[in-house]
């Protein structure tokens, strides 16, 4: 389960990939970590189109990169 702001940004990117079949690369996302220590965590997410053997767009794949700190 993603925080609402991250989920909305990722969903927008995924919809764009499904509409255009073009990847969305390194979207900067951040959210507060759950639990007692509420430090902010930063990620880069990339959404890529997924095709079947007939090259039909069938979905997306998402790759997350966790960043130790924000630059």
Describe this structure in words.
With 71 residues, the protein is an alpha+beta fold. Helix content is 24%, strand content 45%. The chain is built from one helix and three strands. It has one helix spanning 4-20, and strands at residues 24-32, 40-51, 57-67. A three-stranded antiparallel β-sheet has the order 1-2-3, covered by helices on one side. A hairpin with a 7-residue loop joins strand 1 and strand 2 (40-51). The longest helix has 17 residues, at 4-20. It is elongated and about 50 Å long. The mean pLDDT is 90.
Level of helix content? 10-25%
Summarize model confidence as the mean pLDDT: 90
Number of helices: 1
End-to-end separation: 26 Å
**SSE topology string:** HEEE
In terms of DSSP E residues, the strand content is over 45%
How many beta-strand segments?
A: 3
Q: Structural class of the secondary structure composition?
A: alpha+beta
The dominant shape is elongated
């Amino acid at each position: 389960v993603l925080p609402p702001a991250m989920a909305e940004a990722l969903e927008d990117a995924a919809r764009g990939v499904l509409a255009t079949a073009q990847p969305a690369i390194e979207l900067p996302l951040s959210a507060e970590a759950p639990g007692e220590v509420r430090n902010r965590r930063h990620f880069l997410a990339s959404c890529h189109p997924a095709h079947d053997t007939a090259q039909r767009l069938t979905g997306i794949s998402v790759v997350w990169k966790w960043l130790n700190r924000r630059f």
